[in-house]
Amino acid sequence: MSQIDRYKGKFELVATGDSLIFQKISLFKSQGFLDVRDIIKNADAAFNNFETIIPGDKGVPRYKRDATAWMTSPRYVLDELKWMGFNLFSLANNHSMDYSEPGLIETIKAFDEAGVVHAGTGRNLSDARRPSYLNTEKARLSLIAIDTSDNDGPAGESLGIIPGRSGINPLRYETIIRLPESEFNKLNEVSRALDLPDAIEDKLNFLGHNFEVNDVANVVTKPYEPDRVGNLRSISQARKNSDFVIVSIHNHIKRRLGRAYFDDKIEYLSEFVEIFARDAIDAGADVILGHGHHCLNGIEIYNGCPIFYGLGNFISQSYDSNPKPYDWYEARGLHEKYKLDENEIDLQPSLSGEEEKRKIRRLTTSVIANIKFNNEKAEEVLLYPIELIKNDIQGGRPSLAKGSNAEEILDRLSRLSADYGTKMKIEKGIGKIII
Length: 435
Known about the structure:
alpha/beta; Purple Acid Phosphatase, chain A, domain 2; six-stranded mixed sheet; 10 helices
């Protein structure tokens, strides 16, 4: 329970997903775009995931063998997002360390100088994991921002004379492969034959993978305990010092298992994210804002608190102008073919037909969530469908969806949310969840 008197009136938080922004947007005046801006500016607070960095002339590209992009943006894009009405930002994502620690530090400095609240990165683990606070006329909000990949540059804590490491606030995970007893015993025999450790109490670590006995074969994930405990401690601290606690989770880990990445069925979300999201609510969070895999996923209402497992893209401008380091070409055997004056190599994933249309539709449609609080609790969620303008080279900005396009987006989100037992009404092109 909170140790302060929490705000008792009405409060509105607007939340959006990923912004890959590299160009100005304030010069556009189309009505659908201005409608989006109005929704954001009319709220008491507005959240966005800033999925790029502002390194200036600092840093060097971090080695990422299988990556498709290294994000860099000019300083003015932060002013553009402030113009939209945003005042809460997550900086913890898979591009936070694209230009190594100096690039991250310059990004943090840019946000500090702009006077906006940000969370999820820092000069060491305590700095990255600590809550950040936004004071508004009505209430005080706290934000804890998290990234789930152990390859995205997790921050490290200092110890004695050993300095800490700059990076993101991590929520790493453990993978457990479950096998029927007969198959498990065969694997244990192989482990013995290779003079590897034997199974203990129906558990076996074989070549770095954890196996357990189970009735059916499957793969499950669970939060890495030190990260789970550390983040829950930050949430508990935030609960004591703010009216509303917001937890942002940037996640790219899905249950693919050979299936298409852009299939949006709920079972593709890894269990450890669901487990932690519910733990976070129990620790004092009021709302969980998930993003990262660039397409919508379901909404769960847990103990009266909304969990958004995937808010999709909000701004997705072309990042082709961001140059790729030499390592990217070398990893694909293209380093000898590449010439600066004839850069025509394009290895982006290519689909065709209905699969390509499905992928594009998932990437260019999402929602703006308006969470309405009253007397300390969330009582209603409004969902405004948006489409990302994609018909010209200056595309990627959001526009309020109308008519059948709006219905299609909300119908899809309603189906995904139904898998969590969440009921959504659709009225006049707006989704509504009563809590």
